[in-house]
ATP-dependent DNA helicase RecG (Methylosinus trichosporium), 700 residues
Amino acid sequence: MRPSILDPLFGRAAALPGIGPKTAKLFDRLLAAPGKETRLVDILFHLPINLLDRSLRPTIAEAPFDQIVVLKVRVAEHRKPQGRYAKAPYKILVEDDTGDCELVFFLANADWIERSLPLGATRWVSGKLELYDGRRQIVHPDRVLDEAGIAKLPPAEAVHGLTEGLQERFVQRAVEGALERLPSLPEWQDPSVLAANKLPDFATALREAHHPTSRADVEPMGKARQRLALDELLSQQLALRLLRAKMKRLPGRENAGDGRITQALEAALPFALTGAQTRALAEIRADLSSSRRMLRLLQGDVGSGKTIVALLAMASVVECGRQAALMAPTEILARQHYEKLLPLAEGVGLRLALLTGRAKASERARLHETIAKGEADIVIGTHSLVQSDLAFADLGLAVIDEQHRFGVQQRLALGAKGEAADVLVMTATPIPRSLALTYFGDMDSSVLDEKPPGRTPIDTRALPVSRIGDVVEGVRRALGSGARVYWVCPLVEENEELDLAAAQDRHDDLTRIFGEIVGLVHGRMKGAERDAAMEAFKAGTTRILVATTVIEVGVDVPEATVMVIEHAERFGLAQLHQLRGRVGRGSGKSSCLLLYKGPLGETAKARLVTLRQTEDGFRIAEEDLRLRGEGEVLGSRQSGLPGFRLADIAAHARLLATARDDAELILRRDPELASPRGEALRVLLYLFERDEAVRLLRAG
Ligand code: ADP
Ligand code: MG
């Protein structure tokens, strides 16, 4: 059980003063796990992504684009949306002696605007200045102040990631409330490590991280950030080591059968396995047939053929009378696996079941019974597989697809459904060799470093956005020869609202040009709606699919041969590589067009060049890490690496090594975490929700 000292941090954010039910919902959308409520700890770990420097106060003509500026302006004109255009933005034209600029408010509160920006008044407005259709614009200024207001404005302010409707000041209020309730926690770090790195204590670090005073404070190498990163990394390293130690203690079972089903399956495949697939299978089978418990990672680029390897491994287990489960991160992927594997499985008498969160209660009950009685050999599903009311007759192997979407805990939870079940974790994010050890401890790993034959290389080009007309013509030609096209618009969390609007607009544009063959899929859609859009694209009813990055993981439409990525400069290298991997899956010639908005920085340029040069995921991963190590700041989502909340793996590589060494030392000296520092470390593990790891200690 979590120590009670942490209780305040795991209390509901909704209980904080000044956070009403509406704001709480927004926080849930931004910070909480699906179906869960935001807790204080989520607020505290939501560190600023930027520093708003309000010292820049240029004239309109001198103001630089794409930066936060504070402008002193006169309100010149109100452009209120009229009648049936009421959904259009409310625009205000403001000016000074050097030029003018539009303030743009979507879904505006007209009363507030008219009160804050009366015609003719002088105001200070702060926000990001952008050039749009040749006009200067500030969309949703973050401040609109009069003389008295500007005098009180702090020169620097934290900027947190937001979601539609949630304003910075609500986040700051919540952060202050949470900081006030921060309990005093025992020190879990080694004092000599702290001294050597000049790092503050945990509470000071949190306070400072949320109150940056200079740009250095919001960068990964800020002292407060380093301290918090070290805490997270130490908890991760400890949890991994505890997990591994436990796995080694637990005897496994011999889970490989006599080969009759797998041989029939291999014979029925329309292709021969690649050398890499054969090698990986041999490694997996050796684990399965040993009495040691398997914990193996199967790494392979998108399209390298992991699914077949998983099926053959699962079939081995079924041969000896046990069950296997395959857990995918989304409904679409679970269903896709099911549909793809069903004909193969049926051909050799394997009984497949699909269990997703969307199954109706009666159907779910029936499925649960089938699974509990052992009448399903292979169960494919989503998170619903780890629900506590699901019992297997005898689970021998748990396969987890696209693992970085799941935490260590979920891996364990699925493995725990069987008696010492073997665990195979599949990932399409190649982990740079230099990091693999850190991410997966000494977990065994098999690599699919060879693509199935017959793939033609993807023709990759980078074009400035001004050439979008050429791209549309290219798409027209491709459609003419039967192609299907993905068109990706990026989603940047800072302003989801505008990004969604951009995807919607692009969808409308393309529909005007190409007619009713354009689909749209984005993260805000309901599951069923999104599946329907994907299905229509798979079936060819729609032939262009405009998407935000929801198509990132695993979706398989072999007919899709063109990938257009808008604002390619906003994506990380690994993410671009993943997206590109959606095409080039059939034997047709595929292309990928990267549309960028210049001017490009050095790293952005280097990313696009690398992408054009190679399709080797491991090379790309190494290069990604190198570029990030050189100071490019991207969230873990963009980097494609498994996520940390506070640590940045490229920037904090040295701290990671420190945490790894420390974890090793700790567990060598105090394997049960029973010493006073051990007690403090238990608090750390609970703080980062590695409860499962602490439970391993108890069980041990
Ligand atoms: P991954 O899960 O690694 O992204 P998949 O398992 O979905 O890749 O495989 C991608 C495609 O390649 C599928 O259509 C699959 O049937 C096909 N495939 C897999 N292995 C081979 C092979 N050895 N030869 C030819 N095609 C293969
Ligand atoms: Mg896959």
Remarks:
- The first helix runs from residue 21 to 31.
- The pocket of magnesium ion (ligand 2) is lined by residues 306-307, 401, 554 (CB under 6 Å).
